[in-house]
């Protein structure tokens, strides 16, 4: 298939199956309650089944629904791993199997975006894509001045498919509410929609990339490729190469894995202070180590705009959790909107839920392991445990959505790397509010 499907009947049918499944479970849940089953246990089971169906359906779709599913994956820890696993598997297969555009369609898009004489801009252009993404594909080329470049070309119809998916998904806010009862879903969906819509305009991505490239120009630790040219659906930037994080995860020795982990954490914490932007797509494919030891960072379609750096209340929350100051932690969470007005949840339960997440900041160095990550997932995903109930009582304010996604995603990568690094030292340097 050379173009993303513009007809949305099949996509809408799949998405529409979600609320029907939830309705059936709600009726079944009431039946169980009538015959004496514990209401909290029934609710937890329904939530888990809803998540299972939600992830499965989103994982089968391309474009907006897939991107929505990726963003929503910050909630994966709230459901048991065996239920989230099919979704992750479907998403991985979907990314790997993205069908390339035909050469003809690619050339048509380049002519539309860069002008009919687009070929004169390049001294060489490889028609076979070097990589694919959810809404576009990347080609290797050589710019007319001899510079190797990466040319990102958006799939025809990607914008229509994305907007169609987002409209459909936004109608199902009740379904998402069943997943996380304590979260105010509508503003969160609005924030997701706004950020994803931005990713359709490659000129916006080019502006983001220019900003970060300027901030790190000449930096001894990081390399952000410069933008060469941009149009709404085509982005040309300098070609960068290196060892992808995925390969370092598979094959790297301890020294290399520790270095990659340190640089990843350093970049995520320093970028808001240096560039006013947070790279919000923590995927191993967006980071690689160049031969000179610098970390190359690509893909700036999704960013959080943080003109004053990371929010200081986040630093205070980390500090209060470390200091076992349950009351200050709870009041700060309430002030920032993590606890909705009227929600009854004991401060000590909230502290018990969050404290293990700041464990990496308690020692001079911390070893991020899969086992540690799995313990956290099991703890908050245990349907019968207090932490699961506490997590379902907390809200995720829209302004923290992308920050939360980056913290969760990059921590996952650090655990995949099995990296040992001075996390506290990085946080002390870059996170406002952390040091009293």
Automatic annotation (TrEMBL):
Protein kinase domain boundaries: 124-436
Origin: domain of life: Bacteria
Gene Ontology MF terms: kinase activity
Gene3D superfamilies xref list: Transferase(Phosphotransferase) domain 1
This protein's UniProt keywords: ATP-binding, Kinase, Nucleotide-binding, Transferase, Ubiquinone
Pfam families for the chain: ABC1
Family recorded in the similarity comment: Belongs to the protein kinase superfamily. ADCK protein kinase family.
Protein's UniProt name: Unusual protein kinase regulating ubiquinone biosynthesis (AarF/ABC1/UbiB family)
Species the sequence originates in: Kibdelosporangium banguiense
């Amino acid at each position: 298939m050379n173009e993303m499907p513009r007809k949305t009947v099949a996509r809408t049918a799949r998405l529409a199956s979600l609320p029907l499944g939830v309705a059936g479970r709600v009726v079944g849940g009431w039946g169980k309650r009538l015959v004496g089953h514990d209401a909290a246990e029934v609710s937890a089971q329904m939530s888990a089944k809803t998540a299972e169906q939600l992830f499965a359906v989103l994982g089968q779709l391309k474009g907006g629904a897939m991107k929505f599913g990726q963003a929503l994956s910050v909630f994966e820890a709230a459901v048991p791993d065996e239920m989230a696993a099919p979704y992750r598997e479907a998403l991985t297969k979907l990314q790997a199997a993205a069908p390339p555009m035909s050469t003809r369609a690619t050339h048509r898009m380049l002519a539309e975006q860069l002008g009919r004489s687009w070929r004169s801009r390049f001294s060489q252009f490889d028609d076979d894509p070097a990589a694919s993404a959810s809404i576009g594909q990347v080609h290797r080329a050589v710019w007319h001045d001899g510079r190797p470049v990466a040319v990102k070309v958006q799939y025809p119809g990607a914008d229509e498919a994305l907007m169609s998916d987002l409209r459909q998904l936004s109608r199902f806010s009740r379904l998402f509410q069943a997943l996380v009862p304590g979260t105010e879903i509508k503003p969160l969906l609005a924030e997701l929609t706004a950020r994803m819509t931005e990713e359709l305009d490659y000129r916006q991505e080019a502006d983001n990339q220019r900003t970060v490239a300027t901030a790190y120009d000449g930096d001894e630790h990081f390399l952000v490729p410069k933008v060469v040219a941009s149009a709404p659906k085509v982005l040309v930037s300098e070609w960068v190469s290196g060892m992808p994080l995925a390969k370092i995860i598979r094959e790297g020795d301890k020294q290399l894995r520790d270095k990659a982990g340190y640089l990843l954490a350093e970049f995520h914490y320093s970028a808001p202070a240096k560039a006013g932007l947070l790279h919000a797509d923590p995927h191993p494919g967006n980071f690689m180590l160049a031969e000179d030891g610098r970390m190359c960072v690509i893909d700036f379609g999704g960013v959080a705009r943080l003109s004053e750096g990371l929010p200081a209340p986040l630093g205070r929350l980390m500090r209060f959790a470390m200091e076992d100051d349950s009351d200050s932690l709870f009041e700060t969470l309430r002030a920032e909107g993590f606890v909705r007005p009227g929600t009854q949840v004991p401060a000590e339960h909230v502290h018990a839920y969050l404290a293990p997440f700041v464990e990496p900041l308690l020692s001079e160095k911390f070893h991020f392991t899969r086992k540690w990550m799995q313990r956290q997932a099991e703890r908050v995903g245990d349907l019968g445990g207090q932490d699961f109930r506490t997590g379902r009582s907390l809200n995720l304010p829209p302004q923290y959505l992308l920050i939360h996604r980056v913290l969760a995603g990059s921590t996952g990568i650090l655990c995949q790397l099995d990296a040992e690094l001075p996390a506290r030292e990085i946080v002390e340097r870059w996170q406002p509010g952390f040091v009293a």
